[in-house]
Amino acid sequence: MLQLLIIGGGVHGVHVAHRLLQQTPLTRDDIRILDPHDELLYAWRRCTRNCGMRYLRSPSVHHIDIDPFSLDRYALLPENRSDTNFIAPKDRPSVELFDRHCQMVIDNHLLESLHVRGRALEIHNHLTHVSVATTAETIHARRVLLAPGMGEQPFWPSWAIRLKDQGTRVGHVFDPDFSLDDLQAKGPVAVIGAGISGAQLSLRIAEKQDDAVFLISRKAIQVIDFDFDPGWLGPKHLERFCRQSIDQRRLEIMAARSKGSVSRDVKLALENATAQNRLTCIVDDITDATDQAGSAHLIGRLDQYDCQTIVLATGFTEKRPGNGFMDQVIKEFDLKTAACGFPVTDPSLKWHERIFVTGPLSELQIGPSARNIAGSRHSGRRITDALNEELTSSKP
Protein backbone atom coordinates (compact mmCIF):
# COMPACT_ATOMS: atom_id res chain seq x y z
CA MET A 1 0.00 0.00 0.00
CA LEU A 2 1.18 3.53 -0.76
CA GLN A 3 2.18 5.81 2.07
CA LEU A 4 1.08 8.91 0.14
CA LEU A 5 -0.97 9.62 -2.98
CA ILE A 6 -0.51 13.16 -4.30
CA ILE A 7 -3.52 14.35 -6.29
CA GLY A 8 -2.26 16.94 -8.76
CA GLY A 9 0.91 16.91 -10.87
CA GLY A 10 1.56 20.64 -11.06
CA VAL A 11 4.34 22.67 -9.47
CA HIS A 12 3.05 22.00 -5.95
CA GLY A 13 2.55 18.27 -6.31
CA VAL A 14 5.90 17.75 -8.02
CA HIS A 15 7.88 19.88 -5.58
CA VAL A 16 6.37 18.24 -2.51
CA ALA A 17 6.97 14.76 -3.94
CA HIS A 18 10.61 15.66 -4.65
CA ARG A 19 11.13 17.11 -1.18
CA LEU A 20 9.58 14.12 0.56
CA LEU A 21 11.81 11.69 -1.34
CA GLN A 22 14.89 13.66 -0.36
CA GLN A 23 14.05 14.61 3.21
CA THR A 24 11.92 11.78 4.66
CA PRO A 25 12.28 7.98 4.84
CA LEU A 26 9.70 7.65 2.04
CA THR A 27 10.88 5.97 -1.18
CA ARG A 28 9.60 5.91 -4.75
CA ASP A 29 7.63 2.79 -3.83
CA ASP A 30 5.72 4.82 -1.22
CA ILE A 31 4.54 7.79 -3.32
CA ARG A 32 2.48 8.28 -6.46
CA ILE A 33 1.29 11.45 -8.23
CA LEU A 34 -2.18 11.20 -9.76
CA ASP A 35 -2.69 13.58 -12.67
CA PRO A 36 -4.81 13.26 -15.84
CA HIS A 37 -2.26 14.71 -18.27
CA ASP A 38 0.41 12.96 -20.32
CA GLU A 39 3.28 14.42 -18.30
CA LEU A 40 3.93 16.19 -15.02
CA LEU A 41 3.68 20.01 -15.14
CA TYR A 42 1.60 19.77 -18.34
CA ALA A 43 -1.00 22.34 -17.23
CA TRP A 44 1.70 24.72 -15.97
CA ARG A 45 3.51 24.60 -19.29
CA ARG A 46 0.29 25.02 -21.27
CA CYS A 47 -0.70 28.12 -19.29
CA THR A 48 2.70 29.82 -19.50
CA ARG A 49 2.86 29.10 -23.24
CA ASN A 50 -0.64 30.39 -23.88
CA CYS A 51 0.01 33.58 -21.93
CA GLY A 52 3.07 34.26 -24.03
CA MET A 53 5.06 34.48 -20.81
CA ARG A 54 8.78 35.09 -21.32
CA TYR A 55 9.92 35.70 -17.74
CA LEU A 56 8.49 34.53 -14.46
CA ARG A 57 7.35 37.05 -11.90
CA SER A 58 9.15 35.06 -9.18
CA PRO A 59 12.84 35.41 -8.23
CA SER A 60 15.36 32.74 -9.20
CA VAL A 61 15.29 31.12 -5.74
CA HIS A 62 11.70 29.94 -6.31
CA HIS A 63 11.59 26.69 -8.29
CA ILE A 64 10.78 22.99 -7.80
CA ASP A 65 14.21 21.85 -6.56
CA ILE A 66 15.09 21.92 -2.85
CA ASP A 67 18.28 24.02 -2.71
CA PRO A 68 17.25 27.65 -3.31
CA PHE A 69 20.31 28.24 -5.51
CA SER A 70 19.82 25.17 -7.70
CA LEU A 71 18.45 27.22 -10.61
CA ASP A 72 21.28 29.75 -10.39
CA ARG A 73 23.89 26.98 -10.56
CA TYR A 74 22.03 25.33 -13.44
CA ALA A 75 22.15 28.62 -15.36
CA LEU A 76 25.95 28.73 -14.94
CA LEU A 77 26.52 25.42 -16.73
CA PRO A 78 28.29 26.08 -20.05
CA GLU A 79 25.38 24.74 -22.10
CA ASN A 80 22.91 27.00 -20.26
CA ARG A 81 24.73 30.32 -20.12
CA SER A 82 22.86 33.16 -21.79
CA ASP A 83 22.41 36.90 -21.35
CA THR A 84 18.66 36.33 -21.48
CA ASN A 85 18.46 33.85 -18.56
CA PHE A 86 17.39 36.45 -15.99
CA ILE A 87 15.78 39.85 -15.80
CA ALA A 88 15.64 42.46 -13.03
CA PRO A 89 14.55 42.74 -10.31
CA LYS A 90 15.68 39.78 -8.19
CA ASP A 91 16.97 37.74 -11.15
CA ARG A 92 13.60 36.58 -12.43
CA PRO A 93 14.29 33.58 -14.71
CA SER A 94 13.13 33.14 -18.26
CA VAL A 95 10.33 30.64 -18.72
CA GLU A 96 12.60 28.64 -21.02
CA LEU A 97 15.35 28.33 -18.39
CA PHE A 98 12.87 27.58 -15.60
CA ASP A 99 11.18 24.88 -17.66
CA ARG A 100 14.44 23.17 -18.58
CA HIS A 101 15.49 23.25 -14.93
CA CYS A 102 12.17 21.65 -13.96
CA GLN A 103 12.73 18.88 -16.47
CA MET A 104 16.24 18.34 -15.15
CA VAL A 105 14.86 17.84 -11.63
CA ILE A 106 12.14 15.49 -12.88
CA ASP A 107 14.59 13.44 -14.95
CA ASN A 108 17.43 13.29 -12.41
CA HIS A 109 15.11 12.13 -9.64
CA LEU A 110 12.90 9.87 -11.77
CA LEU A 111 9.78 11.75 -10.73
CA GLU A 112 7.88 10.85 -13.89
CA SER A 113 8.02 7.23 -12.69
CA LEU A 114 5.66 8.28 -9.87
CA HIS A 115 3.04 9.56 -12.31
CA VAL A 116 -0.27 7.69 -12.48
CA ARG A 117 -2.49 9.00 -15.25
CA GLY A 118 -6.05 9.54 -14.14
CA ARG A 119 -8.43 11.88 -12.37
CA ALA A 120 -9.63 11.47 -8.80
CA LEU A 121 -13.39 10.97 -8.60
CA GLU A 122 -13.98 10.12 -4.93
CA ILE A 123 -12.04 9.41 -1.74
CA HIS A 124 -13.35 6.99 0.86
CA ASN A 125 -12.24 6.72 4.47
CA HIS A 126 -11.27 3.38 5.98
CA LEU A 127 -9.97 2.36 9.39
CA THR A 128 -6.28 2.60 8.52
CA HIS A 129 -6.17 4.13 5.03
CA VAL A 130 -8.12 5.83 2.25
CA SER A 131 -9.19 4.54 -1.14
CA VAL A 132 -9.20 6.89 -4.10
CA ALA A 133 -11.51 6.02 -6.98
CA THR A 134 -10.04 7.35 -10.22
CA THR A 135 -10.98 7.28 -13.89
CA ALA A 136 -8.55 4.36 -14.31
CA GLU A 137 -8.44 2.38 -11.04
CA THR A 138 -8.88 2.49 -7.27
CA ILE A 139 -5.73 3.43 -5.36
CA HIS A 140 -5.19 2.67 -1.67
CA ALA A 141 -2.93 4.88 0.43
CA ARG A 142 -2.25 5.70 4.05
CA ARG A 143 -2.58 9.40 3.27
CA VAL A 144 -3.41 11.77 0.43
CA LEU A 145 -2.11 15.22 -0.45
CA LEU A 146 -4.64 17.38 -2.27
CA ALA A 147 -2.77 19.66 -4.69
CA PRO A 148 -5.30 21.04 -7.20
CA GLY A 149 -4.59 24.30 -8.98
CA MET A 150 -7.01 26.99 -10.09
CA GLY A 151 -6.53 26.20 -13.77
CA GLU A 152 -9.79 24.31 -14.28
CA GLN A 153 -12.03 27.22 -13.27
CA PRO A 154 -11.31 30.20 -15.52
CA PHE A 155 -13.66 33.13 -14.96
CA TRP A 156 -16.05 33.91 -17.83
CA PRO A 157 -18.14 37.11 -17.70
CA SER A 158 -21.80 36.43 -18.46
CA TRP A 159 -21.69 38.48 -21.68
CA ALA A 160 -18.79 36.35 -22.96
CA ILE A 161 -20.63 33.11 -22.25
CA ARG A 162 -23.60 34.40 -24.19
CA LEU A 163 -21.40 35.44 -27.14
CA LYS A 164 -19.70 32.06 -27.30
CA ASP A 165 -23.07 30.31 -27.29
CA GLN A 166 -24.04 32.46 -30.29
CA GLY A 167 -20.98 31.36 -32.25
CA THR A 168 -18.66 34.32 -31.76
CA ARG A 169 -14.94 33.56 -31.54
CA VAL A 170 -14.43 33.82 -27.77
CA GLY A 171 -11.86 31.89 -25.78
CA HIS A 172 -10.18 32.07 -22.40
CA VAL A 173 -6.41 31.94 -22.15
CA PHE A 174 -6.69 29.32 -19.38
CA ASP A 175 -9.23 27.08 -21.11
CA PRO A 176 -7.81 23.58 -21.74
CA ASP A 177 -8.70 23.83 -25.43
CA PHE A 178 -7.13 27.27 -25.99
CA SER A 179 -3.82 27.43 -27.83
CA LEU A 180 -2.01 30.65 -28.58
CA ASP A 181 0.03 28.82 -31.22
CA ASP A 182 -3.17 27.86 -33.05
CA LEU A 183 -4.83 31.27 -32.81
CA GLN A 184 -5.54 32.25 -36.40
CA ALA A 185 -7.29 35.56 -35.88
CA LYS A 186 -8.49 37.59 -38.82
CA GLY A 187 -9.53 41.12 -38.06
CA PRO A 188 -9.25 42.99 -34.76
CA VAL A 189 -8.61 41.01 -31.56
CA ALA A 190 -9.72 42.16 -28.12
CA VAL A 191 -7.91 40.85 -25.04
CA ILE A 192 -10.01 41.42 -21.93
CA GLY A 193 -8.16 41.81 -18.65
CA ALA A 194 -4.92 43.66 -18.04
CA GLY A 195 -3.19 41.71 -15.35
CA ILE A 196 0.15 40.26 -16.31
CA SER A 197 -1.47 37.38 -18.22
CA GLY A 198 -3.57 39.68 -20.38
CA ALA A 199 -0.69 42.07 -20.96
CA GLN A 200 1.74 39.37 -22.07
CA LEU A 201 -0.92 37.67 -24.16
CA SER A 202 -1.78 40.88 -26.02
CA LEU A 203 1.90 41.50 -26.74
CA ARG A 204 2.32 38.05 -28.25
CA ILE A 205 -0.83 38.37 -30.37
CA ALA A 206 0.38 41.78 -31.59
CA GLU A 207 3.61 40.10 -32.73
CA LYS A 208 1.69 37.42 -34.62
CA GLN A 209 -0.70 39.53 -36.69
CA ASP A 210 -1.04 42.84 -38.50
CA ASP A 211 -4.66 43.56 -37.54
CA ALA A 212 -5.56 45.73 -34.57
CA VAL A 213 -5.11 44.34 -31.05
CA PHE A 214 -6.99 45.94 -28.16
CA LEU A 215 -6.07 45.34 -24.52
CA ILE A 216 -9.16 46.31 -22.51
CA SER A 217 -9.03 46.57 -18.73
CA ARG A 218 -11.31 48.04 -16.09
CA LYS A 219 -8.53 50.11 -14.55
CA ALA A 220 -5.25 51.63 -15.66
CA ILE A 221 -2.35 49.20 -15.67
CA GLN A 222 -0.38 49.28 -12.42
CA VAL A 223 3.32 48.44 -12.13
CA ILE A 224 4.05 46.07 -9.23
CA ASP A 225 7.06 43.82 -9.67
CA PHE A 226 5.79 40.84 -7.67
CA ASP A 227 2.45 39.12 -7.05
CA PHE A 228 2.57 40.17 -3.37
CA ASP A 229 4.79 41.97 -0.88
CA PRO A 230 7.90 39.80 -0.26
CA GLY A 231 7.24 40.23 3.46
CA TRP A 232 4.63 37.49 3.06
CA LEU A 233 7.43 34.97 2.49
CA GLY A 234 8.58 35.15 6.11
CA PRO A 235 7.59 36.12 9.64
CA LYS A 236 7.26 39.85 8.83
CA HIS A 237 3.62 39.36 7.81
CA LEU A 238 2.93 35.66 8.46
CA GLU A 239 3.28 35.75 12.25
CA ARG A 240 0.59 38.42 12.51
CA PHE A 241 -1.49 36.69 9.83
CA CYS A 242 -1.58 33.40 11.74
CA ARG A 243 -2.75 35.11 14.93
CA GLN A 244 -5.86 36.42 13.17
CA SER A 245 -9.25 34.79 12.79
CA ILE A 246 -9.88 32.68 9.71
CA ASP A 247 -12.31 35.22 8.25
CA GLN A 248 -9.81 38.04 8.75
CA ARG A 249 -7.12 35.96 7.02
CA ARG A 250 -9.29 35.76 3.90
CA LEU A 251 -9.63 39.53 3.84
CA GLU A 252 -5.85 39.91 4.26
CA ILE A 253 -5.19 37.56 1.34
CA MET A 254 -7.56 39.43 -0.95
CA ALA A 255 -5.97 42.76 -0.07
CA ALA A 256 -2.40 41.49 -0.44
CA ARG A 257 -2.60 40.07 -3.97
CA SER A 258 -1.45 42.40 -6.73
CA LYS A 259 -4.29 41.57 -9.09
CA GLY A 260 -4.48 43.54 -12.32
CA SER A 261 -0.83 44.58 -12.20
CA VAL A 262 2.26 43.94 -14.31
CA SER A 263 6.00 43.94 -13.78
CA ARG A 264 7.96 46.93 -15.06
CA ASP A 265 9.45 45.07 -18.05
CA VAL A 266 5.96 44.13 -19.27
CA LYS A 267 4.75 47.71 -18.81
CA LEU A 268 7.69 48.95 -20.90
CA ALA A 269 6.88 46.41 -23.62
CA LEU A 270 3.26 47.60 -23.66
CA GLU A 271 4.39 51.20 -24.03
CA ASN A 272 6.71 50.27 -26.90
CA ALA A 273 4.00 48.29 -28.70
CA THR A 274 1.58 51.19 -28.26
CA ALA A 275 4.10 53.69 -29.62
CA GLN A 276 4.59 51.45 -32.67
CA ASN A 277 0.79 51.27 -33.22
CA ARG A 278 0.81 47.49 -32.77
CA LEU A 279 -1.39 47.60 -29.67
CA THR A 280 -4.08 49.85 -28.21
CA CYS A 281 -4.58 49.88 -24.44
CA ILE A 282 -8.10 50.86 -23.39
CA VAL A 283 -9.40 51.49 -19.88
CA ASP A 284 -13.08 50.54 -19.85
CA ASP A 285 -15.42 48.05 -18.22
CA ILE A 286 -17.18 45.81 -20.74
CA THR A 287 -20.72 45.32 -19.49
CA ASP A 288 -22.42 43.75 -22.49
CA ALA A 289 -21.80 42.51 -26.01
CA THR A 290 -23.74 41.50 -29.09
CA ASP A 291 -22.99 39.09 -31.90
CA GLN A 292 -22.93 40.54 -35.41
CA ALA A 293 -22.74 37.68 -37.89
CA GLY A 294 -19.82 36.09 -36.05
CA SER A 295 -18.14 39.32 -35.05
CA ALA A 296 -18.48 40.97 -31.67
CA HIS A 297 -19.72 44.40 -30.67
CA LEU A 298 -18.45 45.15 -27.16
CA ILE A 299 -20.33 47.65 -25.02
CA GLY A 300 -18.35 49.37 -22.29
CA ARG A 301 -19.26 52.00 -19.75
CA LEU A 302 -17.28 54.59 -21.72
CA ASP A 303 -17.39 53.47 -25.36
CA GLN A 304 -18.12 50.62 -27.78
CA TYR A 305 -15.70 48.43 -29.71
CA ASP A 306 -15.88 46.03 -32.66
CA CYS A 307 -13.63 43.01 -33.00
CA GLN A 308 -13.48 39.67 -34.73
CA THR A 309 -11.97 37.59 -31.93
CA ILE A 310 -12.05 37.88 -28.13
CA VAL A 311 -9.54 36.28 -25.78
CA LEU A 312 -10.36 36.51 -22.08
CA ALA A 313 -7.57 36.93 -19.54
CA THR A 314 -9.96 37.43 -16.67
CA GLY A 315 -8.31 35.06 -14.22
CA PHE A 316 -10.10 32.41 -12.22
CA THR A 317 -13.28 32.18 -10.22
CA GLU A 318 -12.41 32.78 -6.58
CA LYS A 319 -14.04 29.62 -5.32
CA ARG A 320 -12.39 26.59 -3.79
CA PRO A 321 -10.84 24.39 -6.50
CA GLY A 322 -11.89 20.80 -6.94
CA ASN A 323 -15.61 21.24 -7.73
CA GLY A 324 -17.80 18.22 -6.94
CA PHE A 325 -14.83 16.02 -6.06
CA MET A 326 -13.89 18.32 -3.18
CA ASP A 327 -17.52 18.44 -2.03
CA GLN A 328 -17.50 14.64 -1.77
CA VAL A 329 -14.24 14.63 0.22
CA ILE A 330 -15.54 17.23 2.67
CA LYS A 331 -18.71 15.23 3.27
CA GLU A 332 -16.95 11.87 3.52
CA PHE A 333 -14.39 13.06 6.08
CA ASP A 334 -16.56 15.73 7.78
CA LEU A 335 -13.91 18.37 7.08
CA LYS A 336 -13.93 21.90 8.44
CA THR A 337 -14.14 24.80 5.98
CA ALA A 338 -14.17 28.56 6.36
CA ALA A 339 -17.04 30.78 5.22
CA CYS A 340 -15.22 31.15 1.89
CA GLY A 341 -15.31 27.34 1.46
CA PHE A 342 -11.55 26.81 1.75
CA PRO A 343 -10.00 24.30 4.17
CA VAL A 344 -9.36 25.10 7.81
CA THR A 345 -6.22 23.07 8.53
CA ASP A 346 -3.65 22.91 11.28
CA PRO A 347 -0.29 24.70 10.73
CA SER A 348 1.20 21.54 9.20
CA LEU A 349 -1.50 21.73 6.46
CA LYS A 350 -3.25 18.64 7.78
CA TRP A 351 -7.00 18.78 7.08
CA HIS A 352 -7.62 15.32 8.51
CA GLU A 353 -5.31 12.70 10.01
CA ARG A 354 -4.95 11.23 6.50
CA ILE A 355 -5.34 14.38 4.36
CA PHE A 356 -2.81 17.15 3.68
CA VAL A 357 -3.32 20.10 1.34
CA THR A 358 -1.14 22.47 -0.67
CA GLY A 359 -1.61 25.16 -3.31
CA PRO A 360 -4.78 27.28 -3.15
CA LEU A 361 -6.24 24.92 -0.54
CA SER A 362 -3.46 25.91 1.88
CA GLU A 363 -3.83 29.67 1.68
CA LEU A 364 -5.56 30.20 5.03
CA GLN A 365 -2.30 28.96 6.59
CA ILE A 366 0.34 29.98 4.02
CA GLY A 367 -1.16 33.35 3.05
CA PRO A 368 -1.18 35.09 -0.35
CA SER A 369 1.89 33.19 -1.60
CA ALA A 370 0.07 29.84 -1.33
CA ARG A 371 -0.80 29.55 -5.02
CA ASN A 372 2.66 30.54 -6.20
CA ILE A 373 5.94 28.66 -6.58
CA ALA A 374 7.06 30.17 -3.27
CA GLY A 375 3.94 28.71 -1.67
CA SER A 376 4.86 25.23 -2.85
CA ARG A 377 8.17 25.56 -1.01
CA HIS A 378 6.45 26.74 2.19
CA SER A 379 3.95 23.90 2.00
CA GLY A 380 6.66 21.36 1.21
CA ARG A 381 8.63 22.25 4.33
CA ARG A 382 5.60 22.01 6.61
CA ILE A 383 4.35 18.73 5.16
CA THR A 384 7.84 17.23 5.26
CA ASP A 385 8.25 18.13 8.93
CA ALA A 386 4.83 16.69 9.78
CA LEU A 387 5.42 13.42 7.93
CA ASN A 388 8.85 12.99 9.47
CA GLU A 389 7.27 13.35 12.88
CA GLU A 390 4.51 10.88 12.01
CA LEU A 391 6.88 8.30 10.52
CA THR A 392 9.26 8.55 13.45
CA SER A 393 6.51 8.18 16.07
CA SER A 394 5.01 5.17 14.26
CA LYS A 395 8.24 3.14 14.43
CA PRO A 396 8.09 0.27 16.92
Q: Mind telling me the CATH superfamily name of the largest domain?
A: FAD/NAD(P)-binding domain
Runs in which pLDDT lies below 50 for 5 or more consecutive residues are none
Supply the helix-strand structural class.
Answer: alpha/beta
CATH topology label of the largest domain: FAD/NAD(P)-binding domain
Helix count from the secondary structure assignment: 12
CATH architecture of the largest domain: 3-Layer(bba) Sandwich
Strand portion: 15-25%
Main sheet summary: 8 strands, mixed
Mean pLDDT across all amino acids: 95
Rounded to an integer in angstroms, the radius of gyration calculated over CA atoms is: 22 Å
Task: Please report the first level of CATH classification, the CATH class of the largest domain.
Answer: Alpha Beta
* Helical residue percent band: 25-40%
- What sort of overall outline do the alpha carbons produce when their principal axes are compared? globular
- Supply the number of structural domains: 2
State the separation between the terminal residues, measured CA to CA: 19 Å
Number of strands: 20
